[in-house]
């Protein structure tokens, strides 16, 4: 193997963001693009995601990113001639609390602004669509028929296939050990083998490991590794295939069908974190030091969810899935140039929404990296919007954890 090679752009990370970015970049002719991943594609945080796809988000900027993901799925199907496993089942959002109702009303307003369909349902009609629901007459149910969910691994591989078909090179099972810099300008990366990949631009899309790479260049990314998790039940006859996914703002929970069982997730009252320096290279077998099996979180959140999902009492739990998400203090991703370092970009900090925002993030990064006019104003995603932070500081990590605990959307 040559100990030196050249690309126009090196993307670090073969998860859903790295593959989406590569797919969008590859639509620009004449670029030599290399993706480096130290395991296999989508083997880390991507494959553990719940795959919820909602179009309408808490802000206009996030909504634009999410809607681009739906457009990307359609474009990928056209490119490959194969339809992706997008379950176009819609979403039901149900709430009885004042705070939850305010969230539903904001969604209605946002949906109207984007000319998206939304419909208020009677509680009994919502229960018929999603038989695991148990709603009082005071509960309001909002149906968004154009939402859905997808296998995140399948979506990531579709991005990768499209990129590969347009000439992107994937270097799998090869680890980036350092980002190379001279006079505050990045000129490539070095692999564990000693090989140097020269590049005019390096994009850090390494998920929770992005922090350590950026820190090499003196940049503290404003995000922290926080636990995300969900449970999957055994088969139950009331969990209907094709039923809409449900989001519960009152309890900060969500649920959807999964191979005959119910997949459901809860927000921890006290979010569980890891220190960036403690993350292993491979998350297979990794567990958080606190509440490793999720038992405490399940006990804490059970009653609140059970009030609107009484089927919980009848379910036998079959699987518990715990993974690492990268949360920012405002639950908005970090996208753009690394402050003070030329030729180094970040695309990370997705706060549990990486799959749903992947198309929009890929397109925005490709626009910024190639000097095109961004399809959306990137200001909301600036890396320096929080001022000076120390991403290794325990107090800052808890600040990010608090953002996870406050989140009430899917």
From TrEMBL:
Q: Which SUPFAM superfamilies match?
A: FAD/NAD(P)-binding domain
Q: Which Pfam families match?
A: DAO
State the UniProt keywords alphabetically: Oxidoreductase
Enzyme nomenclature, EC number: 1.-.-.-
Q: What class of enzyme is it?
A: oxidoreductase
Q: Which residue stretches, if any, does this entry annotate as coiled coil?
A: none
Residue intervals of the FAD dependent oxidoreductase domain:
8-368
Gene3D superfamilies, sorted: D-Amino Acid Oxidase, subunit A, domain 2, FAD/NAD(P)-binding domain
Q: Note the PANTHER family from the entry.
A: FAD-DEPENDENT OXIDOREDUCTASE DOMAIN-CONTAINING PROTEIN 1 (PTHR13847:SF287), SARCOSINE DEHYDROGENASE-RELATED (PTHR13847)
Q: Protein name, please?
A: FAD-binding oxidoreductase
Natural source organism: Denitrificimonas halotolerans
């Amino acid at each position: 193997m040559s100990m030196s090679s050249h690309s126009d752009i090196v993307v670090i990370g073969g998860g859903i963001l790295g593959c989406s970015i590569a797919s969008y970049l590859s639509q620009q002719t004449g670029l030599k693009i290399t993706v480096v991943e130290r395991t296999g594609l989508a083997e880390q945080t991507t494959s553990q995601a719940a795959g919820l796809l909602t179009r309408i988000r808490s802000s206009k900027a996030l909504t634009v990113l999410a809607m681009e993901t739906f457009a990307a799925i359609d474009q990928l199907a056209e490119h490959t001639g194969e339809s992706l496993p997008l379950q176009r089942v819609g979403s039901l959002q149900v709430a009885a609390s004042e705070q939850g109702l305010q969230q539903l009303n904001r969604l209605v307003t946002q949906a109207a602004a984007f000319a998206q369909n939304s419909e208020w349902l009677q509680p009994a009609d919502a229960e018929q669509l999603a038989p695991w629901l148990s709603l009082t007459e005071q509960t309001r149910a909002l149906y968004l028929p154009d939402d859905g969910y997808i296998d995140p691994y399948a979506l990531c591989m579709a991005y990768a296939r499209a990129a590969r078909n347009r000439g992107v090179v994937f270097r799998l099972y090869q680890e980036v050990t350092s980002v190379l810099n001279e006079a505050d300008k990045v000129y490539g990366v070095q692999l564990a083998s000693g090989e140097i990949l020269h590049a005019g631009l390096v994009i850090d899309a390494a998920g929770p490991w992005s922090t350590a790479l950026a820190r090499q260049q003196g940049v503290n990314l404003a995000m922290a590794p926080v636990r995300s998790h969900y449970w999957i039940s055994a088969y139950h006859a009331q969990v209907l295939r094709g039923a809409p996914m449900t989001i519960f703002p009152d309890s900060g929970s969500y649920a959807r069908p999964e191979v005959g069982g119910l997949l459901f997730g809860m927000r921890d009252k006290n979010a569980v974190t890891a220190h960036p320096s403690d993350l292993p290279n491979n998350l297979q077998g990794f567990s958080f030091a606190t509440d490793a099996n999720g038992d405490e979180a399940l006990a804490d959140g059970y009653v609140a969810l059970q009030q609107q999902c009484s089927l919980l009492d009848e379910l036998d739990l079959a699987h518990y899935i715990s993974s690492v998400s990268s949360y920012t203090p405002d639950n908005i991703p970090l996208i753009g140039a690394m402050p003070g370092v030329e030729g180094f970009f970040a695309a990370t900090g997705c706060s549990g929404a990486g799959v749903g925002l992947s198309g929009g993030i890929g397109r925005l990064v490709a626009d910024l990296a190639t000097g095109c006019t961004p399809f959306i104003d990137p200001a909301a995603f600036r890396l320096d919007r929080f001022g000076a932070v120390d991403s290794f500081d325990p107090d800052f990590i808890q600040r990010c954890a608090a953002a996870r605990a406050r989140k009430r959307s899917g």
